[in-house]
Design goal:
Length: 159
Amino acid sequence: MTSQSFTTSFTVDQSPEAAFTAINNVRGWWSGAIDGPTDTLGSDFDYHFQDVHRCRIRVTELTPGKRVVWHVLKNYFSFTEDETEWTGTDIIFDISQRGTQTEVRFTHEGLVPEYECYDACYQGWSTYINGSLPALIKTGKGDPNRGDPMTAAEQKLAG
């Protein structure tokens, strides 16, 4: 297995603090199907998308204006042989000032191309991290999943 975990980044004309606040508003950019606090160190929250994906995530690091880290405690995929592929992985948001802009670098450490879920997860994270999250930071309005498939992979899996 390679060590090439999924990573992507974007820049916005907002402050690192604004990016940090938006990242912690998970319901505002990823999904409305989140139960539990997402902005409290040590707290756990649950995510689900139909009967396709469920996971429990713990907030393990919150450094205002700099970093957010989540640890996946439990995971279930209906579409992979190993239903637990995300279990034990870390989801990391590194925030940094780049001149007058703020860069957000997202890494899902442990999500690697060898995983059966990789293509679907690549599509999903690319949609939410490169589209919905920057929109939430810039305009105050993201495009989170409200229960209906948003990517081609989600449409196929939910169909």
